Amino acid sequence: MSDVIDELAAQWRACRHLLVLTGAGLSTESGIPDVRSATTGQIRQSGCADALSLRFFQQDPAAFWSAFRTLFPFGTTGSASPDAGHRLLAQLAATDKTVTVVTQNIDGLHQRAGSPHVIEAHGSVERLVCPACLCRDHDATCQVQPVPHCHCCGEVLKPDVVLHGEPVEAMDAALAALAEADCLWVMGSSLEAGPVNQLPALARHWRMPSALVNLQPTALDSRFDLCLHRPIGEVCAKFRQILGFDSD
User: Fold this and answer.
1) Which of 26, 72, 134, 142 fits 85 for a cystine, CB–CB 3.0-4.6 Å?
2) Contact in structure between 177 and 19 (CB atoms under 8 Å)
3) Fold of the 35-79+128-161 domain
4) Does 36 carry a binding-site annotation?
């Protein structure tokens, strides 16, 4: 593993603008379960897969919100804290290089860790949006209501996340960020969810150095220059040692 992390450090030293695509595996060490994992995912265990669809929200808002809070309780408790992966990316962003994070996660932990450039591909559980009037000006009291309603028009609020059946509007921003970058890392993502899983293919087409850090192999491993199948926290600790960063 050390040789691969040495090569990862070499990519970091050579780049000027790093783009990092992060997935659920980056937040599991913060105590947030991977809800999409094929073997241990919370959706598979709870039988709530349909509850993450726009159609279910529209048909039965009360049942939707009950299931959604079962899957994502951290949205109302605020109990999750950034882990080693979030903190490392924030530390890298504090150097003289540009680090842009495109995250598939909806937990807001990159911002909480201090990363300044974050594109939330799938939105954030910390925000609410009215699907009728598009109002996003809602305070924290709405989050704890069993079925939150818009104070502007009275309609049922939706979590400001991309549900099944909705477009990923942040993809344009992700593509623009990749076009400006000169290195791509993927951390904690199985790369099963589109369209952001197209980024590695584009990076390879553009001959951009790339690396994947994920606990399990993915179907797209061959598109990366480097692949490391180890826990994120373990990789981050060794990466810090190589670069001479302060211990986490």
Assistant:
1) 26
2) yes
3) SIR2/SIRT2 'Small Domain' (3.30.1600)
4) yes
Q: Structurally, what CATH architecture does the domain formed by 1-32+82-122+167-248 represent? A: 3-Layer(aba) Sandwich (3.40)
Omega before 231 cis (within 30°)?
no
Tokens 């079925």 sit on residue:
147
Q: pLDDT digits over 95-146, tens only?
A: 999 999 999 999 999 999 999 999 999 999 888 999 999 998 877 677 778 8
Q: Where in the chain is the domain with CATH 3.40.50.1220?
A: 1-32+82-122+167-248
User: Could you report the per-residue pLDDT of 61-72, keeping only the tens digit for each?
Assistant: 999 998 888 887
The CATH 3.30.1600 portion of the chain extends over: 35-79+128-161
Residue 122 annotated among the catalytic residues of the structure: yes
- Per annotation, catalytic residue among 110, 122, 138, 229: 122
The answer to whether the annotation marks 216 as part of a ligand binding site is no
What pTM was computed for the model? Answer: 0.90
Question: What are the pLDDT digits (tens) for 5-42?
Answer: 999 999 999 999 999 999 999 999 888 877 555 434 44
